[in-house]
Design brief:
With 136 residues, the protein is mostly helical. It contains six helices and no strands. It has helices spanning 2-7, 11-39, 54-75, 81-96, 100-103, 107-135. The protein is elongated and about 60 Å long.
């Protein structure tokens, strides 16, 4: 019975896994939003692919593919999931930060990415410290 208890994940591990899954759902939503842009389902200004400027065409295609890929990796708790999310977040930081003149600004999305990155770093530091204490 002691072996089974040792195999059970800690509360921090469970919280970390749920955090990954919540970010995965957000990535799926963001991926669907970019796919909506590509297929022209949304009746907004320049939301159809054939009417988009070239910078939006490139960004929409890349993020429409990468966000669902990141969602799968995060949901499966794969090590590459956060890496793909980081690529998506970095692309959007460049789009809506320095290149806001071309893409517009979406400060709430940038704040979301910053919050996710801060929580992720917090989890990684806490897990590293716990592992280091367990070794000593």
């Amino acid at each position: 019975m002691v072996g089974m208890a040792a195999m059970r994940p800690s509360q921090m591990d469970s919280a970390y896994n749920w955090f990954h899954r919540l970010v995965a759902l957000a990535c799926l939503v963001l991926g669907v939003v970019y796919w909506i842009r590509l297929v022209g389902f949304y009746p907004g200004f320049l939301w159809r692919f054939d009417l988009m400027p070239i910078q939006w065409k490139i960004a929409s295609i890349v993020l429409a593919v990468l966000y669902p890929f990141a969602a799968v990796g995060l949901w499966l708790l794969a090590s590459w999931g956060p890496v793909i999310w980081f690529l998506c977040a970095g692309a959007e930081f460049v789009m809506f930060g320095p290149l806001a003149g071309y893409f517009g600004s979406r400060n709430e999305l940038l704040l979301f990415h910053l919050a996710v990155a801060a929580v992720y770093i917090g989890f990684r530091v806490a897990l590293h410290l716990r592992k280091r204490r367990a070794r000593n």
